[in-house]
Design goal:
By secondary structure, the chain is α/β, with parallel strands linked by helices. The chain is built from 19 helices and eleven strands. Strand 8 and strand 9 form a beta hairpin. Helix 4 packs parallel to helix 6 and helix 13 packs across helix 16.
């Protein structure tokens, strides 16, 4: 049996919801980027429960109903006499059945139902409202296209707005889990191997297990796997974002490429693209969830001292090395692509290492705020500041790949300007390197 890693918090939440659904109907929305492990989590959760797993394939509505009918009878004992050709009619039968029966119903790739049966969501609203009283259903709607799932459930103009009773957003594995998985597959791994795995996957389950099961457990074998002719790492970035953005992705991809290359302010991006990209940046942030604005710690809300950051490590890697060098892939020059990655690897992974330590500190230590700082001239940059505001304690951290390059004396000097924000704080200075991963 395949080992299942972590997800203890999410499993506990799902179990709590399941207990509640024995008394009254629950409708849970499960979101998270593609490849994050939503389906694996749900399959693990329902394996010992009375449950039905329905996958919304883009089939004809009548064919999908026929498949689902068989699944429902086999898994939860719902027998429907005659042929049902409408998903809404089938859902009504499910809700009637739930009046005297408790079970879990998972509807995966939920967002695709709007293409299979365009009027289903409106009908589902009426059916849910009509039958939820007295129902003991634990309904879980799961979807992989973030923007569509957000619109379906959080846009006040949509029929299912306000119908969910719970929302779980699945995040990538934490650094400690990534480390455990790598140790299981390569007990003698080095810090460089861990950093490379984090760079390529960012904790996304599918990417980790593609590498591990492909016996790519060291830095060099991981890069080799990721740049192989048949590697999903070469195409997944485009596939994921086109499913979110649609065919008009040109400017969005140009923006992401520039951010991945270190052009992180809107003024830099505008000057290269030669247009105001404010609306595109906002969409990438709020609608698509792909980037986030980063400000110096303690910035005022109205501060325009903003740098844009791609949230997802794999997408950073994709736009920095794959999308930017697409011509090499089209020419079949995979060895040259590998060479480019190796040439720029040390410089590129400097920022990756900073992000790793931010997540590690947030996971393991008692912090109330964590971030970076730089002044208005983009000088005296501090890599990481971890605060415990209750104890009035601050840790100011310099991150370098090599420990010998860390100077705590220089760190103290460039921190003088920032420390004006910390009256009465006990301040600790620290250096972190590959040795501390």
């Amino acid at each position: 049996m395949k080992q299942f890693y972590d997800r203890t918090t999410e499993l506990a939440a799902l179990s709590q919801i399941d207990e509640q659904s024995k008394e009254y109907a629950c409708f849970t929305l499960l979101t998270g980027r593609r490849r994050i492990g939503k389906t694996e989590l749900l399959r693990h959760f329902i394996q010992d429960k009375k449950s039905a797993y329905l996958f919304a394939m883009r089939d004809s509505e009548s064919d999908l109903c026929s498949q689902w009918q068989k699944t429902l009878e086999k898994s939860i004992g719902l027998k429907i006499f005659g042929t049902v050709t409408s998903i809404a009619d089938l859902f009504e039968q499910i809700m009637i059945f739930s009046q005297g029966n408790h079970f879990v119903l998972v509807m995966d790739e939920f967002q695709d139902l709007q293409f299979i049966a365009p009027s289903f969501f409106s009908k589902m609203q009426n059916i849910w409202d009509s039958y939820k009283s007295g129902s003991k259903i634990n309904l879980i709607a799961c979807g992989s296209i973030f923007s569509m799932m957000t619109r379906i459930f959080q846009d006040s103009k949509e029929p299912l707005f306000g119908r969910c009773t719970h929302h779980i957003h699945l995040k990538p594995f934490t650094p400690s889990v990534v480390k455990k998985i790598l140790a299981d597959f390569n007990p003698t791994y080095k810090s460089e191997d861990l950093l490379c795995l984090y760079m390529l996957s960012g904790g996304v389950a599918k990417y980790i297990f593609l590498l591990m099961h492909g016996k790519a457990t060291t830095k060099d074998t991981m890069i080799s796997y990721a740049t192989n002719m048949t590697s999903p790492f070469l195409i997944d970035g485009k596939d994921i974002l086109i499913s979110e953005i649609g065919k008009e992705y040109g400017i969005y991809f140009s923006i992401l490429k520039l951010i991945s290359q270190g052009k992180t302010t809107q003024s830099e991006i505008d000057s290269i693209i030669l247009k105001n990209t404010g609306a595109y940046l906002k969409n990438l942030e709020t609608v698509l969830g792909v980037i986030r604005p980063v400000k110096p710690l303690f910035s005022k809300p109205e501060s325009r001292n903003i740098r844009w950051q791609i949230i997802d490590n794999y997408l950073k890697f994709y736009f920095r090395f794959i999308y930017s060098n697409q011509y090499l892939i089209e020419l079949g020059q995979y060895d040259l692509l590998q060479e480019k990655i190796h040439e720029e690897y040390e410089v590129y992974t400097g920022k990756t290492l900073e992000q790793y330590f931010m997540e590690k500190i947030a996971e393991e230590e008692a912090v109330t705020q964590i971030g970076s700082w730089w002044n208005k001239k983009s000088q005296n940059e501090i890599d990481i500041i971890a605060l415990n505001e209750e104890k009035k304690a601050a840790t100011i951290i310099e991150v370098k790949r090599q420990a010998r390059k860390i100077s705590l004396e220089k760190l103290r000097e460039k921190s003088v300007e920032f420390e004006k924000n910390l009256p009465g704080y006990q301040i600790t200075y620290k250096g972190l390197s590959l040795d501390d991963m």
